[in-house]
Amino acid sequence: MDERYMRLALQLAESARGQTSPNPLVGAVVVKNGEIVGFGAHLKAGEPHAEVHALRMAGEKAEGATVYVTLEPCSHYGRTPPCADLLIEKKVKRVVVATTDPNPLVAGKGIEKLRRAGIDVTVGVLKEEADALNEMFFHYISTKTPYVTLKYAMSLDGKIATKTGESKWITSEDARRDVHRERRMHDAIVVGVGTILADDPSLTVRFGHEGKQPIRIVLDTHLRTPLHANVVTDRMAPTWIVVGHHVTEEQMKPYEHAGVQIIRMNENKIDVPTLLLELGKRNVMSIFVEGGAHVHGSFLRSRSVQQVLAYIAPTLIGGNEAPSAIGGEGFGRMIDALRLQVKHVERIGSDIKIVAKG
Ligand code: NDP
Ligand code: ZN
After folding, report:
1. 250 is catalytic
2. What are the pLDDT digits (tens) for 6-24?
3. Which of 37, 107, 129, 334 is the most exposed place for a label (fewest CB within 10 A)?
4. Dist. CA 160 → ligand 1 center (Å)
């Protein structure tokens, strides 16, 4: 029974995917005498936590009830008062928690508070599912840097463009639609200026999507992004351009007038680990790195890769000069190669999607 209600709580949590950042996905279900009397999910940062919604719905029926919650109830004052206090105040009898809060400053404290108040607490029901649900958030909280997904569409021989730089389109429309769905799961999309110059992409979530758009981030040491590029002019989503230290205020001005935010690094190059710390400070919890080959190469060299999404088309491009999915220097020895595990394989239209994780 515990698993059944927890599964429902997980589904509720999942339903808000893409809109809670930088907060985790959390769901809660209140059960009394074998009946569901309340449920809720955390929908947006700054808005009530899942427990608050669920307890509100339950009203007086919360007294003596069991509350299923996918993440340890909070015990500290954030933007809202602690949920642990609310559970105690509502006199619930039992709390079932899927997984503990990964923040070492908070971990276990909510559970401890409930237990001290005499509430029966069970921890670990569907823990694996709950950990997978908030993988990005957990990574962000423990490293203070965004969760990195590398994405590419490649031919069966591993090319992401022809030798002349053409890449439209390697994969089918169905696969490209799937990319839009995946983009939405991340806070920001990252590309190199090479991709902007070659393809002038708009990097927005389309195909009927209306909600929040991920931030577009361009890695562009010398500010070569054209002022007429789509990411500068279309105002469809926020655009940040990351530049080297030598770029002047004067150079930055026209971009800022167009609504673009410029992030100037302290060096004359863009070092990936430094960039990730900088983005973490700006509450970017996850990034979707869409190329090109050079940028992928830098992320690989610094081993800053949590997940790879590869869309593979049954097309052969060939050619020594056609770029492969990951360029740059690469590793010289097999022992240094980044080893991942395949988590998911799917046929989409005429293509194959592979999800691999570190
Ligand atoms: P990239 O988009 O990788 O951009 C590379 C440029 O980004 C560099 O030359 C550099 O220019 C700048 N840059 C800034 N910081 C970094 C960093 N830390 N690491 C690496 N580069 C950095 O360009 P590519 O030329 O490699 O790839 C473009 C090609 O790839 C195009 O032909 C495009 O069509 C294709 N493509 C294909 C995709 C697919 O999935 N099939 C996806 C994306 C692109 P600077 O020194 O001036 O800052
Ligand atoms: Zn809370």
Report:
1. no
2. 999 999 999 999 889 889 9
3. 334
4. 11
Ligand 2 centroid, distance to 51 Cα (angstroms): 7
Q: Of the ligands numbered here, which is closest to the C-alpha atom of 273?
A: 1
- Tell me the per-residue pLDDT of 55-109, one tens digit each, with 9 for 90 and over: 999 999 999 999 999 999 999 877 778 999 999 999 999 999 999 988 777 789 9
190 lines ligand 1 (CB under 6 A): no
Write phi, then psi, for 308 (nearest 5 degrees).
-120, 135
Looking at domain 146-357, which of 3.40.50.2300, 3.40.430.10, 3.90.1010.20, 3.40.50.1100 is its CATH number? 3.40.430.10
Task: Report how far apart, in Å, the C-alpha atoms of 166 and of each of 160, 179, 195, 205, 230 are.
Answer: 9, 19, 11, 22, 18
Task: Measure the CA–CA gap between 321 and 178, rounded to whole angstroms.
Answer: 28
CATH classification of 1-137, choosing from 3.40.50.1000, 3.30.70.360, 3.40.140.10, 3.30.720.120? 3.40.140.10
Annotated binding site for substrate: 167, 183, 203, 206, 290
